[in-house]
Every structure is written in C-alpha cells, then in structure tokens.
C-alpha cells in the first residue's frame, strides 16, 4: 500500500494501528474516559499506551499506520520514517507540528494533521476579551480603583468605550479569523494587514485591508495574530509603535518575538500607549522587567491557548481526525506541504 492520503481515502473502515507518541500524563490530560473509548474503537493502540521514545518502541513503530502525537513528542525525522514503512499519517493533538516534524514527511506522502484550529478557539476568546477590556481601559482603572477607592474614571485616562473604535488585526491566521468573526458583534471598524489576503477576502472577513503603518497609525487597539517566522521576527518595529495614537493599546496573544521588546518597553514606560501581553520576549520576562510594574501594562503567563478543560478540545479534534481516517475519509485539518513554511 503506498504511503499517501489516497490510500487512506480508499480504505475500508477499520481500526488503525496507532502509536501514541506523548507522555502518559499528557495522554490522560487530552483524552477523557469517554474520548479514550472513542479512540480505541478506531485505533489499535500499540505498545499498550503512550511512549516517549521511538527507539523504545521499534517493533511497534515498524507496524504503525498512524502516529498520534502530543506535547513532548520525540522528533519525527527521516530516520524515524525509515523505521516506519507502514506509516500513513501523523495526527497531532496539539498546535504546531513544526517543532518536531521534519518536512520530509510530505516527500514520503504521509498525511499530517494538527489540532491548531481547536487551540485557536481559546486564544481568540482571550483576544476578544482583551480587546473589550482594552477599550474600557479596565486594567489601568483596576489599579486606580484599588488605591483611590474613588468610583469614577481615572483622571486623564484615554477615552473609554468600544463604540465606533478602530480595531487593527495583524494576521488573518486561524486565530485572527476567529477574532474577526467575533468582532462582528461589536460596533467597531476593523482593519486587517496580511500579505496573503486581498481586499476581497478582507471584506469577506469583515475588515478593510491596509498596510502595517496605516493599521498602527489608525487603530485604537492593535491585536497580533501572525506566526513567528524569520520574516516576521520583530515585525512590530519601534517605528510602528511610535505611529500608534496616544492612548492606543497593543495586544499580543501570538508570539513575543513579533515585537521589538525594547521599543515596546520604552513606549509603555512613557505612558503613551497601553499593552496587554500574554506572550513576551524573552519568556518569562526577567523579574525586574518594568512591564510587571506598569499600571498601563497587563501581563499574563502565556495562558491564552488551551488550558485546563480546554485541552480536551484538542483531544476531541485528534480523535475526530482518526475517525475520519478509519472511515476512509480525508482529514479536515490536514497540513499542506506548501503551507508548512508559513504556518505557526
């Protein structure tokens, strides 16, 4: 049988020989009892459970048709693929696969899927909440109210409210598109900057396409949703931050490396702009970072993505992909070889 998705599409419904490449605690976190039962109806789990090393499960790897991967999966290299002649698919029950999957998998005709779309949901929810709170300048007022005990807005604070404001989104990624959907419920004007989107697509998403400088100069709130790639590192330059209107807010739930950290600290220390940062560069920040003590900066410890009970959504997405494979269907969240270089 050739190692390609056509072979999967033509297969009869059956249990797929599956090797679970993640730690046992990760497996327990991803798959509830009910979800594990669903998984075992379509997957013949090799090695009796999760494995943390391919070398320790050489016989099972040789027979595996599917690698079900998660956080902590060992690298899937050409050598691993050589030892897995029956492998048809890698199904990742987490976000990015770029940290452990060698692009050679596509040359071998092996299908690859991830739960990145499922992980984008809580990030988008977090970003939307941050946008709404940012419009109210809730984080500045929290500290003001805590110390003043005065029931009125902080004197001299930027204009409060979300009606008629301009929200700029950098990146129409999975998360960016979910945020765009959710922004339709607000009375706001939305700008979008993304080199892979044209004006027609932007309008369909509910936004006006523009360049980065225009977006930063005209937005009351800027939310980042671009992947961190060599070409996007320090994408948000000192010049772009300086172009933001006084009182504007930068929200980053993507990657800290997208932003010139020194320039951001300078702008925030001046009090000219606010920031909501779930990711930073470096991560974690040094204990003496000024961002921890500034009233106009709200920092959280990289928790926008799937956490706690949200992790089960990732397991659900992976099991659903395996069910499709077992039924001879194509995966919904398959990653295309041509997109591998530009995805997060």
From TrEMBL:
Q: Coiled-coil segments, which residues?
A: none
Q: Domain D-isomer specific 2-hydroxyacid dehydrogenase catalytic spans what residues? A: 58-335
Name the chain's protein: Phosphoglycerate dehydrogenase-like enzyme
* Keywords in alphabetical order: NAD, Oxidoreductase
* Cross-referenced Gene3D superfamilies: NAD(P)-binding Rossmann-like Domain
Give all residue intervals belonging to the D-isomer specific 2-hydroxyacid dehydrogenase NAD-binding domain. 134-304
Family to which this protein belongs? Belongs to the D-isomer specific 2-hydroxyacid dehydrogenase family.
What InterPro entries does its record include? D-2-hydroxyacid_DH, D-isomer_2_OHA_DH_cat_dom, D-isomer_DH_CS, D-isomer_DH_NAD-bd, NAD(P)-bd_dom_sf
* GO terms, molecular function: NAD binding; oxidoreductase activity, acting on the CH-OH group of donors, NAD or NADP as acceptor
């Amino acid at each position: 049988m050739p190692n390609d998705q056509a072979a999967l599409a033509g297969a009869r419904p059956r249990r797929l020989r599956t090797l679970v490449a993640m730690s046992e605690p990760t497996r327990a976190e991803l798959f509830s009892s009910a979800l594990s039962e669903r998984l075992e109806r379509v997957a013949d789990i090799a090695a009796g459970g999760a494995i943390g090393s391919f070398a320790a499960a050489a016989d099972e790897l040789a027979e595996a048709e599917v690698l079900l991967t998660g956080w902590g999966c060992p690298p899937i290299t050409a050598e691993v693929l050589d030892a897995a002649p029956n492998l048809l698919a890698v199904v990742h029950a987490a976000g990015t696969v770029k940290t452990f999957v060698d692009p050679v998998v596509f040359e071998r005709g092996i299908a690859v899927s991830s739960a990145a779309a499922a992980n984008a949901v809580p990030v988008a929810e977090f970003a939307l909440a941050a946008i709404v709170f940012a419009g109210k300048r809730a984080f500045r007022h929290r500290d003001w109210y805590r110390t003043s005990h005065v029931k009125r807005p902080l004197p001299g604070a930027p204009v409060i409210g979300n009606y008629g404001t301009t929200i700029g989104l950098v990146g129409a990624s999975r998360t960016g598109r979910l945020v765009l959907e959710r922004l339709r419920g607000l009375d706001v004007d939305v700008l979008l900057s993304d080199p892979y989107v044209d004006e027609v697509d932007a309008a369909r998403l509910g936004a006006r396409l523009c360049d980065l400088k225009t977006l930063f100069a005209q937005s009351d709130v800027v939310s980042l949703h671009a992947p961190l790639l060599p070409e996007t590192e320090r994408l948000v330059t000192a010049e772009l931050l300086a172009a933001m209107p006084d009182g504007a807010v930068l929200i980053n739930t993507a990657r800290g490396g997208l932003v010139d950290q020194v320039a951001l600290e300078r702008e925030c220390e001046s009090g000219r702009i606010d920031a909501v940062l779930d990711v930073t560069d470096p991560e974690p920040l040094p204990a003496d970072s000024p961002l921890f003590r500034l009233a106009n900066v709200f920092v959280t410890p990289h928790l926008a993505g799937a956490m706690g009970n949200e992790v089960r959504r990732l397991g659900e997405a992976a099991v659903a992909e395996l069910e499709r494979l077992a039924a001879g269907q194509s995966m919904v969240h398959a990653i295309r070889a041509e997109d591998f270089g530009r995805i997060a």
